[in-house]
Design a protein that fits this description.
Layout: H1 6-9, H2 12-31, H3 35-48, E1 52-53, H4 54-60, E2 69-74, E3 78-83, E4 93-99, E5 104-115, E6 118-126, E7 139-146, E8 152-157, H5 184-187, E9 195-198, H6 204-210, H7 215-228, E10 238-244, E11 249-251, E12 257-260, H8 263-277, E13 287-293, H9 310-322, H10 327-335, E14 338-342, E15 345-346, E16 368-371, E17 375-376, H11 387-399, E18 404-406, E19 416-417, H12 421-425, E20 430-435, E21 437-438, E22 446-449, H13 450-465
Parallel strand pairs: 1-2, 4-13, 4-14, 14-20, 15-21, 16-18
Antiparallel strand pairs: 2-3, 3-13, 5-6, 5-10, 6-9, 7-8, 7-10, 11-12, 12-22, 16-20, 17-19
Helix pairs in contact: 2-13, 3-8, 8-13, 9-10
Bound molecules: manganese (II) ion (MN) (2 copies).
One manganese (II) ion binds near residues 296 and 343.
Length: about 475
């Protein structure tokens, strides 16, 4: 089925709206470079629209009724937002789900070391990356340092114009004869992804007093103490993420694309948030939900990943608050729900055409991409949407005049990937993978089409309204 480039059919008004949505999205990308920052930003936007925190509502015994807007947060790293409908929750919800963690380089728990006159942070990468792509580009550090006194210090350095940045160095080409013959997986070793953070020793007088041997490391510690009020041991309880520094930018002479860090999967997460928060105040029949989860890139594990009971627990609380405390009603609420598991698709890249099968590839600027199934090598590990549900989705999208395409991730037996869909499917609900197609996914800077971002918001809105 041939799909045209969306820009061909867009009116001036469409282009203006797409530009507006993308402007808003780029700001969110710049502010949300970690899962914690994404949660904080989404909560801030939701509270502006009158969303209330569910557990404080329950604690205060406040009433909950149709049209109410509620949210819950798990450990500052995943969050869920609801707009209640006229029908009871046990009739099911329309759920938009996306993940807000992105591939990056994490700082180890004993990170700080000095070697031959340089100070470094030792790291362990997070998610599937081509390691060589993450060297020699300006990096920022985002995250938190939790102290024993219970305070949590926020860190964000490398983003404003007068901030310093950091870098993972790579070998100069002049001496790289041997390195250049290695396989790409071995060109840069995981343990060599360490971050260069200093080269100036602590001032002589101070150093002499303390008889410091590692004067450069000591200087970094002094600066960390000044900036954040922390000592070296506090890094044991830190979550510091090294991410590409700088803002998302328009891409191309025609400005039709966006180059940015973390499109996977924030391009689906923020467009889902926009779709829910922008629902007009008319009350829908079914309850609406937007779920933002952590840890997808490393297998959905842990207390903040999709595999945790966070979402189910929150739904149980909501059912108890709006209907009655009943396990069977909770199960019905989940089983009767339908979901768009929104995650990015592999955008067809003409320069690497051989790994794609063109008829079933997602193309940039050809609309919201649906993947009936995911998985790899004989659909192993796939969540496979039911044909009847796919038909329902087609009708919803066509009725709202949303542009979409159906695709799978690469040629058969070449690759594949998973999402959060299979975990929600375990409740027996209808789930289909959908999302924006991305070029050079999992690279420090990824590419999306502005038209697809706009269609995503339109598609998610149509899904919520259906
Ligand atoms: Mn993803
Ligand atoms: Mn990914």
């Amino acid at each position: 089925m041939k799909k045209d480039n969306l820009w061909v059919s867009y009116t001036k008004e469409d282009r203006k709206k797409a530009e507006e949505v993308c402007g808003r999205y780029k700001k969110c990308l710049d502010q949300g470079k970690t899962e914690r920052e994404c949660v904080a930003l989404a909560v801030e936007m939701a509270e502006e629209r009158g969303y209330r925190e569910l557990y404080s509502v329950i604690k205060k015994g406040e009433s909950v009724k149709a049209g109410d807007k509620l949210y819950a947060v798990q450990m500052d790293k995943s969050a869920v937002f609801f707009q209640l409908g006229k029908k009871p929750l046990s009739d099911g919800m329309n759920i938009l789900g996306a993940h807000i963690d992105s591939p990056r380089i994490d700082i180890k728990q004993n990170p700080l070391y000095e070697k031959d006159g340089f100070a470094y942070f030792d790291t362990h990468y997070y998610g599937g990356i081509k390691k060589y792509q993450w060297t020699t580009i300006p990096m920022a550090i985002h995250g938190v340092i939790a102290k024993k006194d219970g305070t949590v210090v926020r860190v964000c350095i490398g983003e404003s114009d007068d901030d310093p940045v950091f870098v993972i160095t790579d070998l100069l080409v002049h001496l790289a004869g041997e390195q250049m013959t290695k396989k790409a997986t071995e060109v840069v070793a995981g343990e060599n992804l360490d971050l260069l953070i200093g080269n100036c020793p602590i001032e002589q007088s101070e150093a002499l007093e303390k008889e410091e041997k590692e004067a450069i490391k000591e200087n970094v510690l002094r600066i960390l103490a000044d900036m954040y009020g922390i000592e070296e041991e506090d890094l044991l309880s830190a979550e510091l993420e090294i991410v590409p520094a700088g803002k998302a930018r328009d891409l191309g002479f025609d400005r039709s694309m966006i180059l940015g860090y973390g499109h996977d999967d924030r391009v689906c997460a923020f467009t889902s948030v926009f779709a829910l928060l922008d629902m007009a105040d008319d009350i829908t029949d079914r309850a609406l939900c937007c779920l933002l989860v952590d840890k997808e890139e490393i297998g959905n594990v842990g207390a903040t990943g999709m595999a945790s009971h966070f979402f189910e627990n929150v739904v149980a609380e909501l059912v108890a608050a709006t209907e009655r405390d009943s396990q069977i009603l909770v199960r019905r609420a989940l089983a009767n729900s339908r979901m768009l598991s929104s995650d990015v698709s592999a955008g067809y890249d003409p320069l690497y055409a051989s790994v794609f099968e063109k008829n079933n590839s997602a193309f940039l600027a050809k609309g919201l991409a649906f993947n009936k199934y995911t998985g790899s090598r004989g659909k192993r590990g796939a969540s496979d949407a039911n044909a009847e549900y796919v038909a329902q989705i087609r009708k919803i999208m066509d009725d709202a005049d949303v542009m979409y395409q159906f695709s799978e991730l690469g040629r058969v037996d070449v690759g594949g990937g998973g999402t959060i869909a299979h975990i929600m499917a375990e409740y027996g609900m209808n789930v289909i993978d959908s999302g924006v197609s991305v070029m050079n996914m999992h690279a420090p800077y990824e590419v999306v089409s502005k038209a697809d971002v706009y269609e995503a918001v339109r598609g998610y809105t149509a899904f919520l309204r259906a």
